[in-house]
Amino acid sequence: MVAVHNRHITNKHRFIGFFLIGLVVYILSNIVDEWRAYQGATVAVFVVAIASVILLTGYSGQISLGHGALLAVGAYTAALTQIYFSAPIWICFAAAVIMTALVGAILGTAAARLSGPYLAGTTLAFAVGLPSIANQFSILGGEQGISFDAGWPPLSLGESFTQYKWFLWIATLTALISMWWVQNILRSRYGRSWRALKSNEVAAEICGITIGRSKVLAFTVSAGIAGLSGALLAMTMNNVSPSSFPLALSFFIATGAVLSGVSTLGGVMIGSVALVAIPLIATSASDRWSGSQSLATVLPDFIVSALLILTVFLAPKGPIEKLRSRHSK
Fold first, then answer.
1. DSSP letter string over 149-211?
2. Would you list the DSSP string of 43-99?
3. What is the pLDDT of residue 5?
4. 38 and 135, same domain (yes or no)
5. Above 60 in pLDDT, residue 9?
6. C-alpha–C-alpha distance, residues 191 and 58, integer Å
7. Apex CA 121: angle with CA 42 and CA 279, to 5°?
8. What is the reported pLDDT for 76?
9. How buried is residue 261: exposed, middle or buried, by Cβ count under 10 Å (0-12/13-18/19+)?
10. What CA–CA distance (Å, rounded) separates 242 from 140?
11. How many domains is the chain built from?
């Protein structure tokens, strides 16, 4: 009875927290300029992407280095659904989730037989090969890609309400709903099964958990969330092309998960903001030091690598868990 009461209080607090975040975004959307609105939408996109990696790696113990490819599947699915069915944006998002989850189920079936570096290598190969595959089909637009138009905001919001602010609203609302759903599933019996699987597969199997089925389910759910993130990213770019989803994107998302704390969703905003800020920091630094375009291209990868190494050494479980451990002492 006490546990049910505590769970009710926790859910209430989470709901209040999400509501306050939404309220802050609503207020800021009426204040910030176009560029800041675009950055805010991008942060929301990375929140969803990083959450998908944390669910897979932090809770089920499966390592993926190719989540950028899953984002691409979701983006292409959303764009094709709009082009060929003239579907509204929420139908495009739903199609992206379903299709990417199906792809994830196929990969997850292979993942159930692999672990550690073998699984990481398989997902990495998927991320490397997908852009080349996309270039071979005219339906996908080749290197030029295909468009994805989320449309203009309703006229009822006023003439001053711009498209990027509309993107910010859509991305933030989608991220909040996704985080709410992910938190609930991680607190369900499925989440408990994944944590048990990560801790000790033998003990989990003795307790009646079907290892293969649990791994496939975790990969499927994670892929579906990643596909939703890809659709959101396509919305902010108005275009889907192979160059929009390079291999570096997979490493960026993985780094964001490590910066957030791969074993908890609590720090997901930290990793998301860092991924958006890194290119800006790199551009500013290169302009100040040399103005070299080549330096501006290489510097983001260097900063990501440095942050990844520092985080692993100084806060391997993430900054949020580091703070919690300090307060508990």
1. ---PPPGGG-TT--HHHHHHHHHHHHHHHHHHHHHHHHTSHHHHHHHHHHH-HHHHHHTT--H
2. HHHHHHHHHHHIIIIIIH----S-HHHHHHHHHHHHHHHHHHH---HHHHHHHHHHH
3. 41
4. yes
5. no
6. 11
7. 25
8. 96
9. buried
10. 9
11. 2
Same domain? For 220 and 268 the reply is no
> Identity (one letter) of the amino acid at 182?
V
Distance, in Å, from the CA atom of 160 to the CA atom of 211, rounded to the nearest integer, reads 53
Rounded-to-integer distance, Cα 222 and Cα 216, Å: 10
286 and 206 share a domain? no
Cross-strand bridge partners of residue 240 = 146
* Domain co-membership, 115 together with 165: yes
The range of the structural domain enclosing residue 296 comes to 250-329
Residue ending a domain, choose from 245, 264, 292: 245
Provide the whole-model pTM: 0.88
Greatest Cα pair distance, the chain, in angstroms, is: 64
pLDDT at 63: 84
pLDDT at res. 234: 95
Q: Could you count the other beta carbons within 10 Å of the beta carbon of residue 262?
A: 24
User: Do residues 302 and 171 share a domain?
Assistant: no
CA distance 264 to 251: 19
pLDDT, tens digit, 9 for 90 and up, residues 41-60? 999 999 999 999 999 988 88
Domain boundary among 245, 274, 302: 245
Interior angle at CA 251, CA 56 and CA 146, nearest 5: 95
Q: Is-contact 234 82, C-beta < 8 A?
A: no
**Same domain (yes/no): 219, 94:** yes
Same domain, 226 and 257: no
pLDDT of residue 54: 92
Of the candidates 303, 166, 148, 160, the residue with the CA atom closest to the CA atom of residue 235 = 148
Same domain, 124 and 261: no
